[in-house]
Amino acid sequence: MEPSDLETAIGVTISPDNLTAVLYFHKAADNFRCTAEQLEAFLRSRGVVHGIREDVLGNIARDPKAYFYSQTVVASGQPPIDGKDGSIRLVFDLDEDWRRPAELEDGTVDFKELSRIRNVKKGQLIAERIPAEAGIPGKSVTGAVIPAKNGKEARFRVGKNVVVNTEQTAMYAAIDGMVAKTEQEKINVFPIYEVNGDVDYKTGNIDFVGTVVIRGNVLTGFRVKAGGDIRVIGGVEGAELEAEGSVEISGGIMAGGKGSVRAGRNVRCSFIQDANVFASEDVIVSQSIMHSNIRASRNVICFGAKGLIVGGSIQAGERVKARTIGNTLSTATTIEVGVMPELRSELTQLRQQQHQLGENLDKTNKALALLDQMAATGQLSPEKLVMRSKLATTKRQTTEELEVVKERILEIEKLLENTENARVEAVNTIYGGTKIVIGRYTRFVKEPCSRVYFRFADGEITMLPLY
Fold this sequence. Notes:
Layout: H1 3-6, E1 10-14, E2 20-25, H2 36-45, H3 54-62, E3 72-76, E4 87-90, E5 102-103, E6 109-110, E7 119-120, E8 125-130, E9 138-139, E10 145-146, E11 162-164, E12 170-173, E13 177-181, E14 187-190, E15 192-195, E16 206-208, E17 211-214, E18 223-226, E19 230-232, E20 240-243, E21 247-249, E22 253-254, E23 260-263, E24 267-273, E25 276-279, E26 282-290, E27 293-296, E28 299-302, E29 308-310, E30 313-316, E31 319-325, E32 333-337, H4 341-376, H5 382-417, E33 423-430, E34 434-438, E35 441-445, E36 449-457, E37 460-465
Parallel strand pairs: 15-17, 16-18, 17-19, 18-20, 19-21, 20-23, 21-24, 22-24, 23-25, 24-26, 25-27, 26-28, 26-29, 27-30, 28-31, 29-31, 30-32, 31-33, 32-34
Antiparallel strand pairs: 1-2, 2-3, 4-8, 5-6, 7-13, 8-12, 9-10, 11-12, 13-14, 33-36, 34-35, 36-37
Helix pairs in contact: 2-3, 4-5
């Protein structure tokens, strides 16, 4: 049979992505006969020229009846492979999970690891930039090239006391000190300020650009502020602690309803009682959280030997996990997940900043366009030439700032949309008197339940068993 004759018996459909060609029979004709070569010629007449599966065509030619009532893939293209995004490889592990206090067999926790410090020398390599990979184009069954996306280049998040080489491939320490991350994954090297005792009237309040290590307690009414981390080997009373990095307390926080602890990254301690604690990432507690106001943009984890959350209000952007939530007295305890108030506030500010930068860039472009016209007619004075150079620099800087703002807006919007990770886990028991809030939905726990977790599904907060 010729291709023109075959079209009365068979047809070919090409998928919308042009990566698959499917052959089908118009009717089941017992007298249908053809060769694999005729089928291939038919496909080519219909524009299918690449990825033809000759073995399949041979099978159809030998036993066409087996294919009368099905659609058969007779050609497959090559899908494009998107390039891998670039990344930043850290010489130091700054994830901090490796420093999680070890839980011993008797349920106690070893906090010795909390005082470990990552020291670097001036000029030491801290991080390297791994380039993005180019995408590999695909090919459709019609022979057309399908373009692939190249990977997105990574950018160093430059913090304090670090330098990047001119090739933008490596980051080095600018001073002797300690490596630490702060908000938005910025990498810093901080000098360290140590207090060999309590923060009290002898030391006064502390406000330091780097990391603060306190080898005692922080007493009520005092304030410690750090551009890096705050490490407290003792405990914290009703004091004000604020760190751009993490706050790590070997003992606990017993605030009596006074003061607050705020961290640009994580807060870690053994217990929290009658306190206000805020973290831009996680709050990790080994024993108990009692009658406190806790807010974390990511997770609140209370999972030591005791692992108790009772009373107060716990807010987390993603997850709250504890061994026990509430108590037999049905003490009012509110657990709220899927909320990121700091991110929403930051998003509002970023959009205002984006608008302002856009206006500034528009004004700069108009001024440059005018000067370029004057230059074309030879009317540019030396003063105007200097002005044009300054405007070109301003344009470049504003464009770079605008790009950073746009990237951060996309990051936050993606985080706010992701409610699938929002969940509350009670590994042992959750008691009545507990209120679960996920996004805009609320569920009251009336009876004790064991080994369960709560998540939002099908328009309501659902309770499911933990395995």
